[in-house]
Amino acid sequence: MKFFIKNHYFSRIGPIRRAEDIEITAELDGYSFSENPNHIGQILSTKLSKLTVVVSDVVTNQRLGGVLLSVVGEKDYRSNNVIDETGVINFVGLAPGDYFLRAILQEYKFEPSMTTATVKEGQHEHVELRGRRVSFSVFGRVREMSGTPVVDVIVEALSEQCHQHQSEATTTQDGLYRIRALKPHCQYRVSIKGSASGGPAPHCFPSKFDVRMTAEDLMGLDMVAAPYESRTDLAVEIEFASMPIPPIYRVSVQQGGEVVSHSVVHAPVTIFYLNNLPRDGREYSVRVESDRHQQPFIAKTVFFTANAPVHVVRVPITMSKRSSEVEISVGSLLALPFFGLIALAFFNQVRRLPPFFSNALLLRPTCTGHVGVFAVYNLDFVLYPSF
Q1: 370: confidence class by pLDDT, cuts 50, 70, 90
Q2: Within a 10 A sphere around the Cβ of 204, how many other Cβ atoms?
Q3: Is there a shared CATH topology between the 50-133 domain and the 231-316 domain?
Q4: Which of 250, 293, 302, 367 has a CA positioned 20 to 30 A from the CA of residue 281?
Q5: So where does this one cross the membrane (predicted)?
Q6: The pTM of the whole model exceeds 0.85
Q7: Where in the chain are the domains?
Q8: What are the DSSP E strand ranges found in 134-230?
């Protein structure tokens, strides 16, 4: 159960069965509370040290939000906080001692740059930091002709007069932008620099603003962008390093198994271009293959991701083997002497046989038109049976 105590220092709850079963806690900014062990229901309060910091404009006295406040104290105390739009921040429960405060805000200069605050036990210290504006901003919006905001576009302000001083901003979900820290008395050219994703800049009207900054902000630098789509241009370089360029070959680009482009390329062309692929971050494949009527090389496929304005894909090609070509391996060459030795041993065995068996090996029948006629070669005579 929670309740608030106002204008008095006691409250009543109950009835309850046992007071010992009740746990009571209290909270209040700037105070520490503890229960009195000798008296059930009595809460003792202790006022803590508190440091309040207020940041404002020295000229307009307006509170400044978005300030980065760095606080460094004793016993290695460090704190970095961004102050909200109220321009006020509280530090409660700080240990007694000296603290060093430094405020940082773009376009503002704080004097002094470092402020010291002394915190005493149980005391509330108040410090005000005042800054003077030294640079200013330009505001605008980028939209399409239909009124749709153009998101994540980089708008740049560049001054050639003031040593190429440059600042930029990215459009928000509403197409709004604010370019900060522009110096007074400097001439700036405000234009679209590109897309935050790395894509090309949309075509806008007007294409630029030439402005001269003064000691105040500049509003209303709105631009209308023509409709555009993010695209990828593809260049395919086919490398025929170890073979002549074939007279005809084919190049196809596919995505997810579907053919996006299919072209027939004629020699001596070795570079293929394809424009306006969608820059969708998906994986595409490039396949180079020979013409159907001839197979001078092995088909090759290379993959790439369409996530940049330009992609260069290199496809190395190697020559294919013809069916009529016989490949002689090192093992075959080593086996030739072995088979030669076997043949030599065989002929040596034939020479050692008696002449009759040696010549008989060369005996074979011949057809002479007469039955029973035989001829023996490598003999000095021919036998003819009598009829």
Answers
A1: very low
A2: 19
A3: yes
A4: 250
A5: 328-347
A6: no
A7: 50-133, 136-225, 231-316, 336-387
A8: 136-144, 153-159, 165-170, 176-182, 187-195, 204-205, 208-212, 223-225
